[in-house]
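Chapter review: from sequence to fold.
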Amino acid sequence: MTFIYRCQLELHDSLYYATRELGRLYETEPVIHNYALCYALGLVDSDRYSTRVSEEHSYRYFCLEQIPKYEEHLTPLNKQGIYITPARSLSHSATLNTWKYANNNYHVEMEKTQKNIPSFGRVKEIAPESKFEFFLVSQKSLTLPKWIRLGKWMSKAELEVKELPKAKKSEGEFTFHYPLNPLDVMFSRQVISYDVLNMPPVSLIRNVRLQGQFYQTDKLIIPSGMQYRFRG
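The token string follows.
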């Protein structure tokens, strides 16, 4: 049996991650990548969701290596039939903050003194009370946390989850206006047209016209059979 959940997030802190860097401006796009949501929801390397990974690739609060291991961490979710779409903004506002720091040298060689010029930059963050929406498709009933943390500042967010009515599976051409990870859909169905959202680690697409199988429930049409993919 397939369970589909409509999930809404409300920010209680400013949300920051560097979607793009424009000179000294670091901008946060009002979209949350599905990779980030998997980690924030505690789905990765979890006994609760049966997604435990090997000790070599274990994911903890403190990691020995700051190297992403998306394939090792997210593949167990495929085995459990758990998939999360990226989150779109329902309503949001942005704040612009300036940061600066000076160069502090604790070991100084006897050389000509250089000017102490502070480094600075500007950060565009998503403001508190902004709301986002995403979908979770699972082959078993799940219980998600009420509160999660997101982004570089580990910003606090409140999660509201609603289970949608039982879905009917169909096939044909359809349009999905919410963001999608292209790697997760392009190898299992025909992607006809889309708009691109440039962001790391994998750019997303939205307003996507597809040909293939989909679930239809509660006036929602969502692609079926989506899985985390990392290569063609």
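Two observations follow directly from the output. The first strand starts at residue 3 and ends at 11. The two ends are 28 Å apart (CA to CA).
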